[in-house]
Design goal:
By secondary structure, this protein is α+β, with helices and mostly antiparallel strands. The chain is built from 8 helices and 12 strands.
Length: 319
């Protein structure tokens, strides 16, 4: 064929043997927990008034007890008077394209570890996109939903009190920071994280010597070595760049001025980042939506990253 994108004479034969696949986005049965909240538009409009789950929880699922802020062993609540960074992810808009994962990988110098390491549960992506199927027939699901899961940047972060060297700490703006030079690789933080979003360098995955690889990396982000824990940072290098620019102009950071790597490439604008202390910011308005909820809110981790539940509007005449 004269077309560069068309091939002819292709023959398909039945394959023989087995091939092992490395999968990171399937997590089996939700066991009635409202990890991903969905509902029909009709039920949402009818029931979503004054309910802690926002009317978005599917029938048959357990309603989550959301603890009060003072139901915690962490002591007095810290006040964030300046910037307070947060993120909102709209499950209704996510199409599972995984562009956010690729952008995060490139922006933050995350190593590619290969299939063998992924099978050993040693994947290094700071962000994963979980896939959920609705119904009881996996081959013919009633619906398919996608859920990007980065670090939640919890205000009551379970990872922080278990670190013996204070390698994971809270910033004055509510970001759960990683101090790489302090980390001694105990992995206690990963064990205590209910969202399982921390990644450990079991081996030296980075090539430090090849000059072309050095040119490939982002100079604004530290390159991690063996024995160091890492995770999503809310693209803190972009936050600092915007803050420095705003300070030089003697003004606050404007809403939308900071765009994380995952947010920048999302084709449906499902990810929104900003200052939750600003009631007029886009992220604050999304968090004020009735569909907004926290993942595993019953643990009272108070995550800065929250989700907007998915809505379906099926036509009953064709179902």
């Amino acid at each position: 064929s004269d077309s560069p994108w068309t091939a002819t004479g292709v023959k398909v034969d039945k394959a023989v043997g087995q091939f092992q696949l490395a999968v990171t986005q399937l997590h089996f049965n939700m066991e009635g927990r409202d990890i991903l909240r969905t509902n029909t538009l009709e039920e949402y409009l009818k029931e979503g008034h004054g309910d802690s789950a926002g009317g978005i929880i599917e029938h048959g699922h357990e309603k989550t007890h959301v603890p009060a802020p003072d139901e915690t062993l962490y002591g007095n609540e810290h006040k964030y008077d300046g910037y307070a960074w947060g993120m909102a992810i709209d499950a209704n808009s996510c199409v599972g394209c995984n562009a956010c994962i690729v952008a995060c990988q490139s922006e933050n110098n995350i190593p590619i570890v290969g299939k063998e390491q992924v099978i050993r549960s040693r994947e290094m992506h700071w962000l994963r996109v979980d896939t959920y199927f609705q119904g009881h027939e996996p081959s013919n699901p009633e619906g398919t939903y996608f859920m990007p899961v980065p670090c939640m940047h919890c205000e009551n972060a379970p990872c922080e009190p278990v670190c013996p060297v204070h390698a994971t700490v809270h910033s004055a703006e509510g970001i759960n920071d990683m101090v790489y030079n302090r980390c001694v690789g105990t992995r206690y933080c990963s064990n205590n994280c209910p969202y399982k979003v921390r990644r450990f360098n079991f081996l030296l995955y980075q090539d430090w010597e090849t000059p072309t690889y050095q040119l490939m990396r982002n100079p604004e982000v530290s390159v991690r070595s063996r024995g160091v824990m890492e995770k999503c940072t809310y693209c803190v290098q972009r936050i600092q760049e915007a803050k420095i620019g705003a300070e030089l102009e003697n003004r606050p950071v404007r809403d939308g001025e900071i765009v994380t790597a995952c947010q920048a490439v999302c084709p449906t604008e499902a990810i929104v980042f900003g200052n939750i202390n600003d009631p007029n910011s886009r992220v604050s308005k999304m968090k004020a939506d009735r569909r907004n909820y926290s993942l595993l809110s019953d643990l009272n981790t108070r995550p800065r990253t929250t989700y907007l539940g998915a809505l379906r509007n099926p036509n009953p005449e064709i179902i």
